[in-house]
Amino acid sequence: MSFGFGPQITVQQQLKMLSAPRSDPLGLGIGQVIKQEKNVYNVFVEPQGSVADHGPGQPRWQIFLGLNLQFLN
For the whole model, what pTM was predicted? Predict the structure, then answer.
């Protein structure tokens, strides 16, 4: 079993009409890669702040959690 640990960054942009409600988050997070036999697991957490938001109900910040599974042959 081997472990990897490191930073990550995500930029998300939604292509919508300029007048529509939108939020464009930018985040910097941390994650860990775990390889176990023939499987690879990538687990991460990333706080994201909105660099541009428009309209009611759009978040100023959010937390992005993820799990990526790879099943190797």
Answer: 0.67
DSSP 68: E
Read off the pLDDT of residues 16-69 as tens digits, 9 standing for 90 and up. Answer: 666 677 778 888 888 899 989 999 999 999 999 888 887 888 888 999 999 999
Q: How many residues does the chain have?
A: 73
**Percent of the chain scoring above 70 in pLDDT:** 81
Domains: count for the chain:
1
Is the torsion defined by CA of 52, 56, 61, 62 positive or negative? negative
Mean pLDDT of the chain: 82
Q: Return the HEC string of the chain.
A: CEEEEEEEEEECCCCCCCCCCEEEEEEEEEEEEEEECCEEEEEEEEEEEEEEEECCCCCCEEEEEEEEEEECC
